Amino acid sequence: MGQELLAILEQMEREKGIKKEILIEAVESALLSAARKVLNAKPNEELKIELDRNSGKIKVYRNNEEVTSIDFGRIAASTARQVIIQKIREAEKDVVFTEFQGKVGEIVSGTVYRFDKGNIIVDLLGKAEGILLKREQSHREEFKQGQRIRAYVVEVKKDTKGYQIILSRAHPNLVKKLFELEVPEIYESIVEIKAIVREPGERTKLAVWSKNDKIDSMGACVGIRGNRVRNIVGELNGEKIDIVRYSEDIREYIKAALSPANISEVKLDKENLKAQVIVDDDQLSLAIGKHGQNVRLASRLIGWELDIRPKAALAAEVKKEEPETKKEKAEVPVKKEREKAVSLGELSGVGEKILSNLKKSGFNTVEDILKADIKDLTEIKGIGQKKAEKIIEQAKRLAHK
Questions:
Q1: Are residues 230 and 176 in the same domain?
Q2: Per-residue pLDDT tens digits for 58-84
Q3: Burial label, 252 (beta-carbon count in 10 A; 0-12, 13-18, 19+)
Q4: Residue 260 DSSP class
Q5: Which domain does 360 fall in, by range?
Q6: Distance of CA 217 to CAs 148, 191, 203, 240, 243, Å?
Q7: Whole-angstrom distance, CA of residue 356 vs CA of residue 381
Q8: What is the pLDDT of residue 298?
Q9: How many angstroms separate the CA atoms of 105 and 100, rounded?
C-alpha cells in the first residue's frame, strides 16, 4: 500500500498542481482519524501518524509507543478514503484560490455555464467558476449558454462555502486592459493611460499620453485605419470610445476631453476646480452630448466641474447685467421670475424620483423638455409612453404662461 499511495500522490501533484507535502499531511490527518476509530482511542490519549516520505510505510504511535498490531488494510483504508478525498478537494480549492487571487485586475476567458437570478455563472476553462453579477453587466450585452466570454476579475474572496471569483463586464478597467492587450505601446509602458471613465454599454473616455515624443499616443491607440480601437469596440458590442490626448495645460485638456465638440474659450476657477466652457451655438449639443453624457464624462475624466455656455446666451447675459434704462432694470427681476415659474418643479404629477432622474439625464429646465421627444424621455427610468406625453404637454403649457 505504501509505494502505491506515494505513486498516487505524485500523480495528483503533477495533474492537479497540489504540492506532494500538502497531500501527505492531508493523508496523515485522515489516517489519524481512522486510527482513533480502529483503536477506540480515548479523547485524552495521544495518537500520532507518520508516513515515510520515501517508502510510504505508515507508523502509528499511541502515547509515544508504536502500535504494531493495527491493520491498515481494508478497514483503515475504507475509513480514511472519504477524509482523504475531502482534504484533497480542499487543497485543490486552495490552489485555485491562490491562482485566481493572482489574476485580480486581469482579464480571464471562459464560457457561459448557466444563469442565476440575473447573474451569469462562467466556467473558467474547467478550473473554477466565476460569477458575473447583474450589476457588473453591460445593458447592451446578452449572452447565451455555452458562449465564449472575457471578463475582468474584480475580486476573489473566501467564505464559509468556499471561494467566489467576482467578474465584471462593466468596470472601466476592462476597457483599460483591452487596450493593454491590443496596443503594444501601452503594454510596454511607452504610452500611458492617464485616466479612464465609463458608462457601460454607452461610452468610454480615456486620456492617453506618450513618454516618447516620436510616438503619437492617440494614433497608437487608434491603429492603422482604426483597426485597434475597432477591435475593442467590437469586444464591447459597439460601445463608443473617445480617445483623448492628455495635457498638463488644463485648458487644452478640457478642450480635448469635450471632443468631438469645438471649444471657443475656457475660463478657469482653479481654486474651486470649476471651468466655464464657451462654445458656438452649433457646438452646444455636441459638447453636452445626449442627456448630458459627453460633458458628464469629460468632467469625471479631468476632475473639474464644467459649465457649458453658448456664445449667444453669454452675450445676452452680459447685456442683462448692464441695463441702460430703468425699464430694462425693472425687466430683469420679471425675467428671473418667469424662469423660476417654468422650472421642472412646476410639473404636476411628477415625483421627486422622476425629477431626480430627469436632472441626472441632463433635463434641468422646462426648455430642455421641449427640445426632447417622447423617445428621449421613455429612456429615463420611471417614465413610460403616457408619462412622457403628459410631461411634454405640461411643459408646453408652462412655457406659454
A1: yes
A2: 888 888 888 876 565 555 556 556 766
A3: middle
A4: T
A5: 335-399
A6: 31, 6, 20, 19, 9
A7: 10
A8: 96
A9: 10
- pLDDT tens-digit map of 87-132: 777 777 788 888 888 999 999 999 999 999 999 999 998 888 999 9
**Structure-derived torsion over alpha carbons of residues 137, 139, 144, 150, reported in degrees to the nearest 10:** -40
- Residues 357, 339 contacting (CB under 8 angstroms): no
3-state SS class at 258: coil
Q: Do both 75 and 7 map to the same domain?
A: yes
With b for 16 or more beta-carbon neighbours within 10 A and e for fewer, the 208-244 pattern comes to bbbeeeeeebbebbbeeeeebbeebbebbeebebbbb
Same domain? 363 vs 299: no
Looking at 95, 126, 156, the residue that finishes a domain is 95
SS3 of 154, please? strand
Cα separation, 170 vs 401, in Å, equals 45
Burial of 270 (0-12, 13-18, 19+ CB in 10 A): exposed
Cβ–Cβ under 8 Å, residues 123 and 113: yes
Is position 327 within any domain? no
- pTM for this entry: 0.64
Residues 6+ away with beta carbon under 8 Å from 58: 1, 2, 31, 49, 50, 51, 52, 72
For residue 152, give the nearest of 128, 134, 131 by alpha carbon. 131
* CATH number of the domain enclosing 264: 3.30.300.20
3-class secondary structure, 280 = coil
CATH number (domain holding residue 18):
3.30.1480.10
Q: What's the rounded Cα separation, in Å, for the pair 303 and 205?
A: 13
